[in-house]
Amino acid sequence: MSNYNQPRIIQLEEGWNDQIKAKAIDVLIDILDNNFEGGRKGFDPGEYIPIYTTCYDMCTQRSPYNWSRDLYNRHGETIQNYLTRTVLPALRQENGIQLLKQLRVRWKNHVIMNNWLKKFFTYLDRYYVKHHSLPTLSEAGLRHFKIQVYDVIKSDACSAILDMVNQHREGSVIDKDLVKNIVELFEAMGMGNLEAYTADLEAALLTGTSEYYKRQCQQWIVTDSTPDYLIKTERALEEERARVADYLNSESEGKLLNCVENELLESVELELLEKEGSGCRFLLANDKSEDLQRMFNLFGRLEHGLEPMASIVQKYITSKGDECHTAREERLKVEKAKEQNVDPEFISALLELHQKYLNVIRTDFAGHALFQKALKDAFVDIVNRKTGKYSNAELMSGYCDRILKSGGGEKLSESEVEGKLDRIVQLFSYLTEKDLFAEIYRTQLSKRLLTGRSLSDDSEKFMIAKLKLQCGTQFTSKMEGMLGDLAVGSDYRSEFDARMRQDNFSTKLDFSVQVLTTGFWPSSKTVNVVPSTEMTKCMGEFKKWHDSKHAKRKLTYMFALGNATVRAVFGKKSYDIQVATLQAIVLDALNGGVTYTFTELAEKLNLEEAVLKPLMHSLSCGKFKVVKKEPSGSKINTTDTFMANPKFSASTRKFRIPMASLDATHNVKRVEEDRTHAIEASIVRTMKARKTLAHQSLVAEVLSQLAFFRPNAKTIKMAIASLIDRQYLERSADDNGVYNYLA
């Protein structure tokens, strides 16, 4: 049996008093109390290792000499005693900023003490704490500080911090590092979370912030204009954001800014927006772009902050539209002339108004949906309000005709034309009577194309493409067909001319025919006029050629849509007169100095009174009186006589004699008829799918399907009644407000 040296047993009091307390704890406390005099920061390895070894030996001795529990308890008692006997009394002697400075020192010392004690008693953490599920030495040290110090002085520390924050808000220079250090203490007291910081500091900070900015609001709202107030608010938000970055927890930023927003913005939003001489309306009226952007950005921070602002913007734009309508009314009164379906000044004013506030919404309000809706709602009201005899659909179409017609009054480059058309289509998008616009536009397009007065094919195609993008293929298919007819027509004319030369067909006329597809072009009054002998001869030749190519197609001549250039000689001067085909036929009938009464001319040409009167008026009562009427006057009577005007003279050799349209009143009637058909078709289509439907549901469904116009409920009700009479629908026997579909 071998012998070995038994390790010496260390008794509790011996190890604690002679080694741990005397050589570690007392020395550490002395270092802390003397503020690290002599530059000593802690223990060197020669001092630390023996203490650690003593603790290790005392924790690894066999029971009953294993002192792990006793050392763990004495670790806690040491910290607790130091905190209650030294730290807390020192803190209680201070207040305000001095309290915070003392607290910073004591907290820093506590962290050092906690770290060194953890090092000395490391073996406890490794085994005893782990096996007995106890708080670690670091956690235990923090808990003691929280209970013995933090819970006692946290209220005073919080008040001191709030005082410093308010001083900072008032422009004073403060020790930001000191505040940051104490905030970190509050964070640490959460033991891994922010509960202590939130409950003990942040809550009071938020309350104080609200109270501070409430006082500021009460002062600023009285003394400052809205832009100045918002500049101060913007600065306050920036300062609070910087304050968080400098010395507060980042989690507080949103809450802190919310307090500022509630007090400086939400509580007085309407007062700021409506403030006389500086509110939102004033800023819009004076083009204060920078102030509007600031207003948008600030009120955009609130959950519903932009809604009141958007409402003001909508009302303001509507009021500017009212001014445009009022100006048109005043102009119509002053001019006292016959109102026309073209008012470029009015439409230009609407275009400028729309462009201006479209740019405002894009730049100042970042294209926000609420403001886009405000613009839309305002212009839906403006564009669909009728001032004068003509609707805005007619005025807008007339404006387009003026731009797209050569000699229309405006000399524009191609890019300028496209820019104006692009803007008019934007305005058109708000129009509820899109079908009326389409009908009038198509009629005017046909006149431009058939009279050769279209500015350019490219401009016409550009406009049609814009309308197609806005309303779909169905809306523009006929317009595209019209352009297609003209493209094919040029080939037809070349082929027919070649045929006439081949057959040695001679004529005094420069004769050509434009073949139109009936479904594409606006319906026009068919005039069965008796053309001149030479014209009849050419027409017969064209019919033979056309029938040889298209035997199944029927040709109907539309003399009201054609045009001609007539060479006329009055005295010694000759003129080239641009007229409609009907006018040319009348001039040919009066050629050679013959005189006809109205009745005789009507019989000779087989023309109705309603057609011949505007014809003769254009030739005898207009600017160029190439026909002499007896008796003279500005009105055509059936008793008048007509002859070529032998005394006619004009300053220009070439001129055009316009003629009133024979279909001037038909557009609106045609549109109304088409609308009736569309409403009835929508009702039948809906009821066929649903079989049974309540009145309000049916009305809503029909309105959702009609894209190009918006009928009122009364019109839909009348259409339903008509369909019931014609046995497409019936009223339910159980409920008079419910309809059944009849197959």
TrEMBL record:
Taxonomy, superkingdom: Eukaryota
Short name of one Pfam family: Cullin_Nedd8
Family: Belongs to the cullin family.
Any one GO CC term of the record: cullin-RING ubiquitin ligase complex
SMART domains on file: CULLIN, Cullin_Nedd8
Keyword RNA-binding: no
Keywords: Isopeptide bond, Ubl conjugation
Protein name (Swiss-Prot/TrEMBL): Cullin family profile domain-containing protein
One GO-annotated biological process of the protein: ubiquitin-dependent protein catabolic process
Domain Cullin family profile: start-end pairs: 391-620
Record carries keyword Ubl conjugation: yes
Molecular function terms from GO: ubiquitin protein ligase binding
Gene3D superfamilies: Cullin Repeats, Cullin, Chain C, Domain 2, Winged helix-like DNA-binding domain superfamily/Winged helix DNA-binding domain
PANTHER family xrefs: CULLIN
